[in-house]
Specification:
The chain is an alpha+beta fold and 592 residues long. It is 34% helix and 23% strand. A hairpin with a 2-residue loop joins strand 10 (221-227) and strand 11. Helix 1 (9-20) packs across helix 4, helix 6 packs antiparallel against helix 7 and helix 6 (163-180) packs antiparallel against helix 13 (464-472).
């Protein structure tokens, strides 16, 4: 057996760096946290090539003298705590003393700092070797320059994602801190272009506006509650303003961005029955609590915390959010819901049109547009449904139509029909999703995407992160039928939309598509591909579970489904069609 031996300092630092520095965004996060702990009122971040070539973070905090600067480059050297007992009441963002030496071990790093305007101390670190100090003129504060990240660990460099994904990760970290610390002016520049900028005025709603956009910020209700020894403040969106992912839910404990199952479950509980399935409210929630009642030393990234009384934290969040909605008149009651449903029914009845369900052809059909009672027969009117005979080879799964008779709809979600082969149950949403997906990606052949010009062009306002990602994938979004152009800043003017989203809010569909791309890029750390855009768009355009359909609509959906390459699985892999064969049904009821 080999002899046990001590590792050299350089190797130890690189192992520690594996926990602290996963990607450029990890560097940005650690350096921004150091700047905030130093009391900075201004933090400038500059990135080149999404941080792979250069990361520069400047702050106007307290700075360091030569001795402190040298000490800060040693592992486990920190000014935040002095003993293990201090971990019981940590208020700073950093406390382990690993960030600077870990970053320096996988890059060429320059530290420039001073406690007063004038002469700065400059130290360069390469291969864990610290240079002799030099002097340089500059203002009070600290500047960290990180160049050629992972130059000496090429394996890590190889596993980085696209520049868009890596930049999105960095912007996500800066966005969270910009909202948590509205009194600090943040500026992030990428390849010479400003990606995010806040005023530092101290107004949190203004910071939210700078990060998420003015329209989103204006829609939010204020949260304020003191309960169970906790102070909860922030903003939450009303039930009718939601996102398809949790990407716009920012939670902070004592100023630290965190995620815990307890907090997430409390948010979901507060909005149960208020928001549609798989839709999530926007949220910025600041939780102030005695540091002795929360453990922040849970994960290497310091993004998870554990409450001493999880149940109290759960109840406080749930009550705070419900109270905010009630105080702002946003909590619906039974009478309000009933009145809204009656008004909606009256509007639909007044705008009904007739649809000729016999107009389909035996060849490939046009994509099934999003159905509403305004486009088709009323579900309450009986429509004679023809029994289809076997059609030609243009329908690859013609057995779906072999003696087809639509029986009806269950739970406004599943289409129930019978064929010569048995009972067929079809999930209407995923069926329509499969049809639209094959149409968008051209499986049935190259076909021009049908567009619907808007009578009045509409303006889409996005937050900086979403606008940056859309700019990167603009051509793919245009290819699926949207006609849009940059309109200054983070805005786009939309002139036409895919015909398949007729009678839907086109800006909402487009926002949802962009939100899904942000979620894939930032949270799931995936590179948004053309296929991902097809899958996301088809999902957002498709008829939803819970939408009532007429018999004619259901029939048309099944006919279109029979022309697809795969009528059994949607692009996400969820089942579309389940068939209970005649023999199996007879056996179940002991008729054979």
């Amino acid at each position: 057996m080999s002899t046990v031996r001590l590792l050299d300092l350089h190797t130890v630092n690189q192992i520690a760096a594996g926990e602290v520095v996963e990607r450029p965004a990890s560097v940005v996060k650690e350096l921004v946290e150091n700047a905030l702990d130093a009391g900075a009122k201004r933090i400038d971040i500059e990135l080149v090539d999404s941080g792979k070539t250069l990361i520069r973070v400047f702050d106007d905090g307290i700075g360091m003298d030569l001795d402190d600067a040298r000490q800060a480059l040693q592992r486990h050297a920190t000014s935040k705590i002095t003993s293990v007992d201090d971990l019981q009441h940590v208020r700073s963002l950093g406390f382990r003393g690993e960030a600077l030496p870990s970053i320096a071990s996988v890059s060429r790093m320059t530290l420039s700092t001073t406690r007063n305007d004038g002469l700065r101390t400059v130290l360069k670190v390469e291969d864990s070797q610290i240079s002799h100090p030099k002097g340089s003129a500059g203002p009070k504060g600290t500047e960290i320059l990180v160049e050629d990240l992972f130059y000496n660990t090429p394996a890590r460099l190889k596993f980085l994602k696209s520049d868009t994904t890596e930049l999105g990760q960095s912007m996500e970290h800066v966005s969270r801190y910009a909202i948590a610390y509205p009194q600090v002016a943040f500026k992030l520049v990428h390849n010479g272009q400003v990606g995010l900028k806040t005023s530092g005025s101290g107004d949190r709603q203004e910071a939210i506006s700078d990060v998420w956009g003015r329209d989103m910020a204006r829609s939010l209700a204020e949260v304020r509650l003191d309960a169970a020894g906790m102070t909860l403040t922030g903003y939450v969106s009303p039930p009718h303003i939601t996102k398809p992912t949790r990407a716009y839910q920012y939670l902070f404990v004592n100023g630290r961005p965190v995620r815990t199952r307890t907090l997430t479950a409390a948010i979901d509980q507060a909005f149960r029955d208020l928001t549609p399935e798989k839709r999530f409210p926007l949220l910025v929630l600041m939780i102030e609590i005695d540091p002795a009642r929360v453990d922040v030393n849970v994960s290497p990234t310091k993004s998870e915390v554990k409450f001493q009384q999880e149940g109290q934290a759960f109840d406080a969040i749930r009550i705070a959010l419900k109270s905010a909605l009630m105080d702002h008149g946003m909590m619906p009651n039974a009478a309000g819901v009933a009145a809204a449903n009656e008004a909606l029914a009256a509007i639909r009845a007044a705008t009904q049109e007739t649809y000729d369900y016999r107009s389909f052809s035996s060849g490939p059909t046009q994509p099934y547009e999003n159905p509403t009672p305004a486009m088709f027969d009323s579900p309450n009117v009986e429509v004679p449904i023809p029994v289809f005979q076997k059609l030609d080879s243009a329908l690859p799964f013609v057995t779906l139509l072999d003696g087809l008779r639509v029986i009806g709809q269950s739970m406004n979600t599943f289409i129930i029909a019978e064929t010569k082969h048995g009972l067929v149950i079809i999930d209407q949403h995923v069926a329509h999703e499969r049809i639209l997906y094959e149409y968008l990606c051209g499986i049935k052949g190259t076909v021009a995407i049908e567009k619907q010009a808007l009578l009045v062009p509409q303006t889409l306002h996005l937050d900086r992160r979403s606008a940056l990602l859309l700019r990167e994938r603009l051509q793919e979004v245009i290819d699926i039928g949207f006609e849009l152009d940059p309109f200054g800043g983070e805005s786009y003017v939309v002139r036409a939309v895919p015909a398949a989203i007729k009678n839907k809010d086109p800006l909402k569909v487009l926002r949802d598509v962009v939100d899904e791309l942000v979620e894939a890029s930032v949270t799931r750390r995936l590179v948004p591909t053309r296929e991902q855009i097809w899958i996301t768009s088809s999902c957002k355009m498709a008829v939803k579970a819970g939408d009532p359909l007429s018999l004619a609509e259901m029939e048309k959906l099944i006919v279109d489904l029979a022309t697809t390459e795969n009528p059994y699985l949607c692009p996400h892999g969820r089942p579309i069609t389940i068939t209970l064969g005649r023999d199996a049904l007879l056996r179940m009821f002991k008729r054979t």
